[in-house]
Structures are given as structure tokens and as C-alpha cells.
Amino acid sequence: MIATVKTSMRDRLTEAATRLFYADGLRAVSVDKVIEAAGTTKVTFYRHFKSKDELVVAYLEGRALLEREGLGAAIEQGGGDPEAVLRLMAEQIGLLACAPGFRGCPFINAAAEYPDPDTPVRRTVDAHRRWTKSAFASLAAPLGPDRAAEVADDLMLLRDGVMVAGYLDEPARISASFLRSGRAVLEGARAD
């Protein structure tokens, strides 16, 4: 007998929204489309989410968790060696950009659709970007806090560029470019 895993309605709504939001865009997907994809009703939707923006935040928080787990795993596997971490990140970037339906960074996409920095959506985007920069700074921690912050800014810029180039250019070239550029950032920071 095959055991089934029961998914909560909130999770079903979030999973449906994740597929639709990433494929079609946040503003283009209505609550009705999410409800239909999840196979539920408006009453049930509003029992779990007060608004569409709250659902968008849940979607972004889920994507943030995936990125944090991935970057955290690269940092852990790299064992404190920034070069190894960059190599692992470059490999993952190549795989991600090769994935069917890749549409770039969900956070950059969300920021483009929600330009007001005071919205819950933008606050979620900003929180994830702060976390990512902090993780990048940890790679350069031996260089001191000021240099580590600069390296984090540079690596964030590279990451953002990769996410945009990922659906415009060839993934293998993007991966190699990220690795070369990341090495240059670290070497430049060490040389100063």
C-alpha cells in the first residue's frame, strides 16, 4: 500500500501560487487563478491569506528558504574556503539557469513589480537581500568587516547579474563568468 502525504490547504495555495507567480508574474496572476490551480474556493483562500500580497510574501519566503538552504549548503561544503564556495555556487547557477522555465530571480522580478519600498512584498525582498549579503560577507570575514562588506556588495552585484543573464545567455558561460568574476573580487580584496 502506498502512503499518501496530506498537504495543508495553505501549502497547496502557496505551491500553486509559486508555479503561477514565477511563470507568469505576480501582477498577472489573479487570486482566482491561484484558487483554481489549488482546487479550492475564495472562502478557503481568505481563511489562509488576508490578501494577495500576503500570498506573494509567502511565495517569496518559500523561495528565500530554498536559496538560503542552497547557499548555506555551499558555504558548509566549502569548509571555509571562499574559492570552493564560489565554485559550488557557479555549478548551481549553471544548473539553475538550465532549468526549464527559468525566468531569473524571483526577488528581482518582485521588486520590479512592487516598486514601493514600504510594501510587505518589498520588505520581504529587502530582508532576503540583506541575508544574502550577510552570507557573502561571511566568506570574506577574514579580510575584516569593511572589506567583507565591500566583497558582499560585489558578490551581490554578480549574483544579480547572473540571475538576469541566466535567461538571456548560455548557462555554461554564465557559470564560468560568475566563477572568474567572484575569484577576481576575492583576489582584489586580498590585494588591497
Automatic annotation (TrEMBL):
Keyword DNA-binding belongs to the record: yes
Keywords: DNA-binding
Tagged with keyword DNA-binding: yes
Residue ranges occupied by any HTH tetR-type domain in the UniProt entry: 7-67
Superkingdom, taxonomy of origin: Bacteria
DNA-binding feature ranges: 30-49
MF term (GO), any: transcription cis-regulatory region binding
Name of the featured protein: TetR/AcrR family transcriptional regulator
Organism the protein comes from: Glycomyces terrestris
Top-level taxonomy: Bacteria, Bacillati, Actinomycetota, Actinomycetes, Glycomycetales
